[in-house]
């Protein structure tokens, strides 16, 4: 059985899938509240920047992978309008249900699919834009997932990856203290689950650096790959094209 990492712990690939699912089932109900607290509201600015950089325009077909509570789906829906099409997808039913209900409560109907990013149930060359925000880090085979994203993109389309990354080195000690002390404490108070936020901090450290992710995107076929460091590298936005 193949081994992989779950934070700093080595586990089987099957066990990782189960553990990641448990994390998001546990935090789903208060996920948005914790995002606001953890980032002091900055996640909203990061996501708006992602929409702007994506190049999405009226009439586009957009795939939101690991879309969870539908923050980006809602923003993309505004951008593409009624002539466009935005799919909300996630592997985790608890998260997906919250996103689906939120869109319905806002009077916005979007197609929804529970699916694994490593096996996307969409035809080749279908979407104009694909986006994955704070989800790639949790995927076991990032190269396979990225190759699937490339497959479903139409020629000329772009992929946006918004993800926690490697912070500016002088800030590392302060960031580590915040990540490993403050985040689990907040998680314990708000969600009664400190372990999931300890995993969050560990998973960020195990995620590829800005340059490594750029190279991985290039290896699976993306071209003109570039990245933008946000908040001193706490988050990075990668963009690549399919030609």
TrEMBL record:
It comes from the Bacteria. The keyword Transferase applies. Pathway: Cofactor biosynthesis; ubiquinone biosynthesis; Quinol/quinone metabolism; menaquinone biosynthesis; menaquinol from 1,4-dihydroxy-2-naphthoate: step 2/2. S-adenosyl-L-methionine binds at residues 69, 90, 116-117. The keyword ATP-binding does not apply. It catalyses: a 2-demethylmenaquinol + S-adenosyl-L-methionine = a menaquinol + S-adenosyl-L-homocysteine + H(+); a 2-methoxy-6-(all-trans-polyprenyl)benzene-1,4-diol + S-adenosyl-L-methionine = a 5-methoxy-2-methyl-3-(all-trans-polyprenyl)benzene-1,4-diol + S-adenosyl-L-homocysteine + H(+). One of its GO terms (biological process) is menaquinone biosynthetic process. GO terms for molecular function: 2-methoxy-6-polyprenyl-1,4-benzoquinol methyltransferase activity; demethylmenaquinone methyltransferase activity. Pfam families: Ubie_methyltran (PF01209). Its EC number is 2.1.1.163, 2.1.1.201. Keywords: Menaquinone biosynthesis, Methyltransferase, S-adenosyl-L-methionine, Transferase, Ubiquinone biosynthesis. Belongs to the class I-like SAM-binding methyltransferase superfamily. MenG/UbiE family. Methyltransferase required for the conversion of demethylmenaquinol (DMKH2) to menaquinol (MKH2) and the conversion of 2-polyprenyl-6-methoxy-1,4-benzoquinol (DDMQH2) to 2-polyprenyl-3-methyl-6-methoxy-1,4-benzoquinol (DMQH2). This is Ubiquinone/menaquinone biosynthesis C-methyltransferase UbiE. The gene is ubiE.
């Amino acid at each position: 059985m193949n081994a992989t990492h779950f934070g700093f712990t080595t586990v089987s690939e099957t066990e990782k899938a189960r553990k990641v699912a448990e994390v998001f089932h546990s935090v789903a109900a208060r996920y948005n509240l914790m995002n606001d607290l953890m980032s002091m509201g900055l996640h909203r600015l990061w996501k708006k920047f992602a929409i702007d950089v994506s190049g999405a325009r009226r009439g586009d077909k957009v795939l939101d992978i690991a879309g969870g509570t539908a923050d980006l789906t809602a923003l993309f829906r505004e951008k593409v309008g009624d002539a466009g099409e935005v799919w909300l997808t996630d592997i985790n039913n608890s998260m997906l249900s919250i996103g689906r209900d939120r869109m319905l409560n806002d009077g916005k109907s979007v197609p929804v699919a529970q699916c694994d990013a490593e096996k996307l149930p969409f035809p080749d060359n279908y979407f104009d834009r694909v986006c994955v925000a704070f989800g790639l880090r949790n995927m076991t085979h990032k190269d396979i997932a990225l190759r699937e994203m490339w497959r479903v993109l139409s020629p000329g389309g772009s992929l946006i990856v918004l993800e926690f990354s490697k912070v500016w080195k002088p800030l590392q000690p302060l960031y580590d203290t915040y990540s490993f002390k403050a985040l689990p404490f907040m998680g314990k108070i708000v969600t009664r689950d400190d372990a999931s936020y300890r995993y969050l901090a560990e998973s960020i450290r195990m995620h590829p650096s800005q340059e490594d992710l750029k190279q991985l995107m290039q290896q699976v076929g993306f071209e003109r790959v570039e990245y933008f460091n946000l908040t001193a590298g706490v988050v990075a936005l990668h963009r690549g094209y399919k030609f």
